[in-house]
Amino acid sequence: MVSSDGIIVPKTPAEAYSAYKTVNSAVLVAGSQSLKRQQAHYTLAIDLKQTGLNYIEDRGDEIAIGAMTTMAELEASPLLRTLAGGVIPASLKEWSDKELKRQATLGGLLASKPHFSVLIPLLLSLTVDVVLQDKGRMGLNDYLYCPPMGEMITEVVIAREFIYTAYTACRTQPGQIPYLVGAVSLQEDRWKIVVGGRPGLAMLAENASAELTDKGLAARENVAHMVSEELEFGNYGTCSENERRQLTIDMVRSLIKKAWKGYSRQNSQGTKK
């Protein structure tokens, strides 16, 4: 459990980040459950619960989500149910720990960058930017793979595109941490294929995605094999590297078909967001 000599509850993101930069040993408390599993002591804990970062806003071409918005609020959001086939709320329904859903925040999740997250691969399949206090806005993929730079997430922005995402989380039993996660999205003729639980951080299979975008469904089988070869996999838990590679082929093949069907159905219904 993380401990500290003192705690403050700032009223604004600027106040919180100023304190974070000023104190050499400080931690931002943003609902991240990973802090409960750490054994560390800080001079100052900065609780972000009163910084006004709890919101989900319709900004026309974008949906803006405050960093302190909880998983439960994401699941219940009518706006997110209209995005990408409602994949974000659908994935959160699988969280069996209701108390965790009420406490864990989007900003906390992204800051901790968990390797077995289901939500991060889904977000990578969309067009998502992360807004950092005093540092501006950057793409989610760049943020995830950027070395730590003393950042504080204030907002996550998702483009409201005509897009559909299919996903799967492979688990031994319901409620367990997945040993493999896949997300495939289709926007017009542009495909994205993301794999998480490799067990590394979720990653976009760029070459395979470009191949599928260029050649379409006819290349599905070849693309599924490309993903298993393009990305790195490892041994972890009950699933070996070779098992993950083989499972990825079947998973991607199925998700491509599912994404195509979902996009076609969405298109025929005239659902533009």
TrEMBL record:
One Pfam match: FAD_binding_5
Source organism superkingdom: Bacteria
Start and end residues of each Molybdopterin dehydrogenase FAD-binding domain: 7-158
Gene3D superfamilies reported for this sequence: 3.30.465.10
Name of protein: FAD binding domain-containing protein
Record lineage: Bacteria, Bacillati, Bacillota, Negativicutes, Veillonellales
